[in-house]
Amino acid sequence: KQEVTQIPAALSVPEGENLVLNCSFTDSAIYNLQWFRQDPGKGLTSLLLIQSSQREQTSGRLNASLDKSSGRSTLYIAASQPGDSATYLCAADPTNQAGTALIFGKGTTLSVSS
Amino acid sequence: DAGVTQSPTHLIKTRGQQVTLRCSPKSGHDTVSWYQQALGQGPQFIFQYYEEEERQRGNFPDRFSGHQFPNYSSELNVNALLLGDSALYLCASSTEAPYGYTFGSGTRLTVV
User: Fold this and answer.
1) What is the DSSP string of B22-83?
2) Chain A contact present for B81, CB below 8 A
């Protein structure tokens, strides 16, 4: 059974710092890995999708990598800003078959102070 | 391009009552999934609808049921509400191709 773990559960950093959020999964046979942002009480905003044939994706100050063999993904945030404060969730898509469900970690809550 | 739309935004119900939540998928998406997110937890998969049929179901009791309409919109119904059903309910849409999921803003359900 696929399980997704995110470490740390919470992180506080000063503005401007570069940081890494970690996501690990127990079954390396995943298809896609998707990172989301969630503001308090709100829905999920997709940040980056790493498809099966890819190893990383970049969007602005965000870079996500995927290493299936080690069962890990990382989300790198450069030059953090107070507006980055949110909970970050990673989700594994187990197969490329229709009907599969995303398996989420519990998230990392990030607080960036000015 | 409208994303995923969910209604209502917030809802308060009494134990034992029934509730219906609604979701309109992103334009071009034909598959709708529902997730339940308890406070401090990651979303948990409830079920997925495609071509008006329930295609896959997570570990939720039969009190949770759904429907998909010909225009791909979907409803989530929960009967005999329990206090433990209080959560954020998220709808996600996608296409057959594995291009990721788009989530709505969610419906916050409080059962008192």
Assistant:
1) EEEPPTT--EEEEEEE-TTS--EEEEEEETTEEEEE-S--TTEEEEE-TTS-EEEEE-S--G
2) no
| pLDDT above 90 (res A2) | no
Task: Please write the tens of the pLDDT for every residue from B52-100.
Answer: 999 999 999 999 999 999 999 999 999 999 999 999 999 999 987 667 8
Residue of B45, B51, B103, B108 to mutate when probing chain A, most A C-beta within 10 A: B103
Q: What does the pLDDT read at residue B95?
A: 84
Average predicted confidence (pLDDT) for chain A = 93
Q: Which of residues 34-63 of A touch B (CB under 8 A)?
A: 34, 36, 41-46, 49, 51-52
Quick check: helix, strand or coil at residue B108? strand
Contact by Cβ (8 Å): B15, B63 = no
State whether residue B90 sits within 8 Å of chain A by CB.
yes
Q: Is the pLDDT of residue A91 over 60?
A: yes
Q: For chain A, how long is the longest CA-to-CA vector? A: 44
Quick check: A30 contacting B, CB < 8 Å?
Answer: no
How many Å apart are CA A46 and CA B101, to the nearest integer?
Answer: 8
